[in-house]
Amino acid sequence: MDSKPKGPRGSLTIRLAGIVVSIAALWLVLSSVDLGTCATVLAHANPMPLAACLVVLATQVILRSFRWRLLLPPPPKGGRTNVKRIVPVLLVGYLGNAVLPARLGEPIRAYLVARREDLDAAEAFGSVVLERVVDTST
Asked: If both were cysteines, with which of 63, 75, 111, 114 could 124 make a disulfide (CB 3.0 to 4.6 Å apart)?
């Protein structure tokens, strides 16, 4: 059974739900942060360590995307999934891990990559489990 939304209406509903959730999350963050204090701290911060952290994080995400690409099953069309299409799914999974209990971001990203790349859901989930095993062992 195909769980993909049919037609433009299903896609529009998903996008609107995403926008609503994003606005709610943004409101939640902004209402819990003292923006004046945050601006003061950022004005006095040395930008070099922050820039170095961003470079390290970006490199880590790209390398993990390449690793996950190797573990994913090939798409039905053949070849390999493009890393540019894996990065957003990986980031959504990390967000899910940060805000949901029990690392629920992992099955979310397996579902998203399976749906987005037309992969078998069980194989996509298996690749996530294998990646977690590799992460834990290293």
From this structure: 114
Residue 34 has phi, psi (to 5 degrees) of -80, 100
Torsion of CA 64, 68, 91, 89, to 10 degrees: 160
DSSP 114-130: HHHHT--HHHHHHHHHH
**Domain parsing of the chain, residue ranges:** 1-45, 46-138
Question: What's this model's pTM, rounded to 2 decimal places?
Answer: 0.73
| Per-residue pLDDT reduced to its tens digit, 89-109 | 999 999 999 988 999 999 999
Tokens representing 48 are 């070099």
Query: What residues contact residue 117 under an 8 Å CB cut-off, 6+ apart?
Result: 72, 75, 81, 85
Note whether 116 and 94 are within 8 A (CB): no
